[in-house]
Structure to design on (501 residues):
């Protein structure tokens, strides 16, 4: 057997190693060491080749550098007051709700903004991002929706007082604005529909008051329903999101906003790798309406639905559990007028296949009010098509005969039933409708209306019940102002509501 020169060189190195080992009382046969060295060199070469061929992790430095100037810190201050009832969901479905609002973290607020406020005042921290150079900022409703004062701090430490343009608690979105003398940096909006599970994403915000914090992770899942509202469609990510990140952007590798960080799942209050962001595709039409009118109008059918389980699918003669099962139809609603019945399974809406019951609310909400759409139903094993004229979601409570939501003016009212009179301590002889909710930033809030106020007149016309309220509000459509006579405790007074502040 002929041995190469390299082999003998390795043997000589092995002998040298044997001498070195012997000097410390060890003994290793030179050939064993030589063959060991050969194996070591081969393994090192293989490992080096493997590293060269493995994909390199991306650097997020460029994305962070570009986007961070457009991310802001939001400090909200609000006085404690009775918790407002949320408007009824257009598609009531039993949902678990383990995700609460961000804790105020008063200690962090004290550290960054001064002494702890009095017990009657609460403060919270959040994030947002600039979407236009003239100072429009997108954030979460739960960050600013109930605030009496909002302070925005830019990345260069400049501070501004912000005004709420409009909020939407159903999607947890809010649009605020600051008055600036120079164009501000913005971050572009992307398309969340293009995201795939496993894609890299970057979150920027102010967790626990630590400004301009950048974290990264991947898209863990899409279309998550977490019980936050009728339009849940969250992006789940393991990018670190903590209290204070709410309202901040979730970015793709092109530096585009694909989501608005909104919630986390945690038993400790900190991040455990499960965060949720509102898809930017869901936010775009909401933001457009908020910027134009300060409110959001949505399509409405007037049905209560539930998911089609495998057991239900089998009993209804379906081969797979798809569609939305109608459990109730509101009297006088668009669905009722079109002939939809309890037990129908809605399979398509305006050409869109309803794979799951959760798909229907979002599709209906984005449909223009007054549009005629074809809806495919499965009724007692037979497919049927009906045409529905999509209504306005604000008509929902009125159709149910309990409430009326005048969204343009920012008030929700209800009839003076015995229970309502008792709850608001109203006299048995009092007539009118009582205000149960006032939208943040609305004309009603700007005018100084309060929950519990009783509307006795609209534009000098008497209001004795919901029917009167609805009639006179409808007559005022298109008018810039609304004159109300309000009864508050023992005093009556006039208020003027203006559509724009």
């Amino acid at each position: 057997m002929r041995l190469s020169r390299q082999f003998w060189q390795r043997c000589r190195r092995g002998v040298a190693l044997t001498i070195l080992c012997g000097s410390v009382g060890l003994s290793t046969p030179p050939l064993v060491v030589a063959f060991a060295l050969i194996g070591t060199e081969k393994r090192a070469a293989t490992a080096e080749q493997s590293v060269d061929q493995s994909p390199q992790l991306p650097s997020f430095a460029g994305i962070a550098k570009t986007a961070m100037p457009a991310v802001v810190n939001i400090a909200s201050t609000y006085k404690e007051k009775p918790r407002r009832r949320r408007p009824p969901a257009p598609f009531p479905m039993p949902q678990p709700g383990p995700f609460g609002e961000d804790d105020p973290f008063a200690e962090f607020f004290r550290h960054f903004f001064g002494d702890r406020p009095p017990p009657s005042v609460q403060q919270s921290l959040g994030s947002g991002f600039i979407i236009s150079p003239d100072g429009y900022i997108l954030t979460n409703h739960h960050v600013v929706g109930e605030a009496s004062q909002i302070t925005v701090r830019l990345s260069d430490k400049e501070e501004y007082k912000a005004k709420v343009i409009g909020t939407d608690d159903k999607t947890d979105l809010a649009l605020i604005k600051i008055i600036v003398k120079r164009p501000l940096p913005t971050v572009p909006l992307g398309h969340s529909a293009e995201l795939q599970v496993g894609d890299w994403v970057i979150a920027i915000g102010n967790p626990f008051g630590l400004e301009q914090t950048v974290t990264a992770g991947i898209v863990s899942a899409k279309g998550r329903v977490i019980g936050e509202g009728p339009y849940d469609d969250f992006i789940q990510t393991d990018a670190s999101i903590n209290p204070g990140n709410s309202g901040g952007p979730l970015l793709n590798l092109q530096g585009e906003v694909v989501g608005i960080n909104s919630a986390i799942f945690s038993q400790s209050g900190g991040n455990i790798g499960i965060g949720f962001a509102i898809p930017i595709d869901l936010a775009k039409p909401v933001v457009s309406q908020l910027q134009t009118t300060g409110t959001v109008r949505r399509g409405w059918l007037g049905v209560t639905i539930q998911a089609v389980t495998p057991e239900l699918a089998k009993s209804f003669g379906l081969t797979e559990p798809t569609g939305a099962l109608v459990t109730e139809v509101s009297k006088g609603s668009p669905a009722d007028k079109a002939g939809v019945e309890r037990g129908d399974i809605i399979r398509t809406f305006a050409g869109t296949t309803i794979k799951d019951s959760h798909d229907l609310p979002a599709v209906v909400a984005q449909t223009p009010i007054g549009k005629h759409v074809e809806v495919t139903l499965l009724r007692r094993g037979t497919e049927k098509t009906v045409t529905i004229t999509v209504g306005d979601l604000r008509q929902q409570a009125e159709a149910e005969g309990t409430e009326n939501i005048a969204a343009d003016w920012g008030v929700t009212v209800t009839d003076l039933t015995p229970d309502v009179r008792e709850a608001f301590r109203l006299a048995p002889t009092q007539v009118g409708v009582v205000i149960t909710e006032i939208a943040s930033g609305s004309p009603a809030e700007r005018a100084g209306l309060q929950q519990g106020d009783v509307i006795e007149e609209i534009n000098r016309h008497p209001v004795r019940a919901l029917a009167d309220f609805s009639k006179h509000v409808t007559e005022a459509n298109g008018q810039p102002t609304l004159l109300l006579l309000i009864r508050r405790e023992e005093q009556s007074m006039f208020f003027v509501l203006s559509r724009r502040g």
Q: What stands out?
A: The chain has four domains: 5-53, 63-293, 299-393, 402-498. Confidence is low (pLDDT under 50) at residues 13-38, 81-117. The CA atoms of residues 310 and 321 lie 5 Å apart. Residues 30-53 form the longest helix (24 residues).
